[in-house]
Amino acid sequence: MLELKTPRGLAVQVPETEAEDPSPKFDVADIGGITSYYRDNGYVVVRNLIAKDRCSQIRALWDTEVKSFDGYMYRQATAKAERHVRNGNGWIMNPILNLQSVNPSHFPRFRQFATENILTDRNLSRVFTAFLGDAPKIVQSMYFEGNSATWEHQDSYYLDSESVGEMTAAWIAIEDISARAGRFFVCPKSHKIRLDDHSLYNNIAENHEGYIQSVVQKIRDEKLAIRAPVLNQGDVLFWNAWTIHGSLDSQDAKHSRSSITCHVIPNKKKFLQLQTRTFDLPTDKVQDTYVFRPKDLSKAKNRLILGIESTFPTSFYWLKKKAILHAIRQKAG
C-alpha cells in the first residue's frame, strides 16, 4: 500500500494489489449488485467491461493519429484550445476534450472508433441505463495519457442533468493503471452531500480555487474516506454527479495513465451547464446510446470558432469569462 496525496494535499492509501483494495469488483452480468453498490456508495467498479482488444486499438489510434498532431485541440482541464503539452516520455499531459467531436479530417479513425466502440459500447450502455432508468445521452468525454492531476470536485458544479445529481460518469482504464500513475480517486458516500451551488463567491470564472477549497474542507470536516481502486485494462469505475473525486497528484516516469472518461444524462432530460442554464441537446443515436457532440469540428462554423479562439485567445477568453459572470449574476438576481 502506497501513501500518496491528492492535488490539494490530502493523504490517500493507494492499493498496489487486488488483495489490498477495499473496493469490490463486479462482473457486468451482476447488474443488480452493480446498481445496489452504486446507489449506496456513489461509485462502483466493474471488471473487464470493455474488451481488451478495443482498449488496445483505441490506444494505437491515439498514437498514430492524435499524438503526432501539432494543431489546437480542446482540453479537459481548461476547456481551451491548446497545442499538446508533452513530458519527457512524450506523453500528452493536457488531456483532450470530447473525443466524439474532434476534427474527422485529422482524426478520422480515432473519432469513429472512440464513438462506436468505446463510448457507445453495449456493456457500458447497459450499466448506464440501469442507473438512469433511460437510454444514456453522452454530454462529455475526455482522453488522458500522461498522469496529470485533477483537483477534488463534484461534477455537478460544472455539468449535470436538469434533475440535479442525476448525471453519472465512467472512467475507463485503457491500460493497467499503476498505483504510482495518478490513479482516479473517489470519496465513498459523498454523493449524499450537496455542496454550495455556483455563486458570485465560488464561481468558475473568478474564484474556482475557492470552490475547490470548499470541497477539500468538506472532506476534512466529514472525515470522508478516499479510495483509489485498482483498475486494469478494460475495467470501468462509475460515479455519480455528486460523488467527490479527482485523480492523484503523482508523476510516474515508467507508467502512463491511458484512460477515457465520459459523462451521461438520461436521454429524455435536458443538460444543465454551470448550474445556470439548461439546454435541449442535438444527438446522434449510435447503437443504444445518444451522442451529443459539443463544438463538433466536422462543422465549418465550429472550425472557424476554433481558429478565432486559438488566434485571439486573450480577447476570446475574456469575453467568455464575462459571459459566465453575467449568467451567474442573472441566476443570483
Broad structural category: alpha+beta
| SSE topology string | EEEHEHEEEHHEEEEEHEEEEEEEHH
CATH architecture: Sandwich
Number of strands: 19
* Helical proportion, percent range: 25-40%
Low-confidence stretches: none
Classified by CATH, the class is Mainly Beta
> What global shape is seen?
globular
Backbone CA Rg: 19 Å
Question: Can you identify the CATH superfamily?
Answer: q2cbj1_9rhob like domain
Sketch the major β-sheet. Answer: 9 strands, mixed
Number of structural domains: 1
Compute the separation of the termini in Å: 50 Å
State the main characteristics.
22% strand; Jelly Rolls; 9-stranded mixed β-sheet; 7 helices; 19 strands; 3-stranded antiparallel β-sheet; alpha+beta; 333 residues
What does this structure look like?
The chain is α+β, with helices and mostly antiparallel strands and 333 residues long. It has a single domain, classed as q2cbj1_9rhob like domain (Jelly Rolls). The chain is 29% helix and 22% strand. It has helices at 31-41, 52-66, 108-119, 122-132, 208-222, 300-311, 313-332; strands at residues 2-5, 11-14, 25-26, 43-46, 73-74, 81-82, 96-97, 136-144, 150-153, 159-161, 168-173, 184-186, 236-240, 245-247, 259-266, 271-273, 277-279, 284-286, 289-291. Strands 3, 4, 7, 8, 11, 13, 15, 18 and 19 form a nine-stranded mixed beta sheet that branches. A three-stranded antiparallel beta sheet has the order 9-14-12. Strands 10-16-17 form a three-stranded antiparallel beta sheet, with no helix packed on it. 42% of the residues are buried. The model has no long low-confidence stretch (mean pLDDT 92).
